[in-house]
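REVIEWER CHECKLIST
Item 1: Sequence provided? yes
Item 2: Single chain? yes
Item 3: Sequence as submitted:
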Amino acid sequence: MANANWLDLLKFRVSYGMMGNDDIGNYTARSYYTAQNLLGISGLVKGNLGNESLMWERVSKANIV
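Item 4: Structure as written out by the authors:
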């Protein structure tokens, strides 16, 4: 193998990664109310229309070069 110069250029790479979407807000999946003041009268208004079926996105990726 001392004369196998092509072996010096041979590379084998393997990678695996799992990532997700982190642009989801902290309370996006939940409905909540927030206080609001209009003309000196305080009240509660719906702050968010929640989506209970919202889940974290998971993407797996593998590379073999």
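Item 5: Key structural point noted by reviewer: Residues 14-64 form one domain.
Item 6: Recommendation: ____
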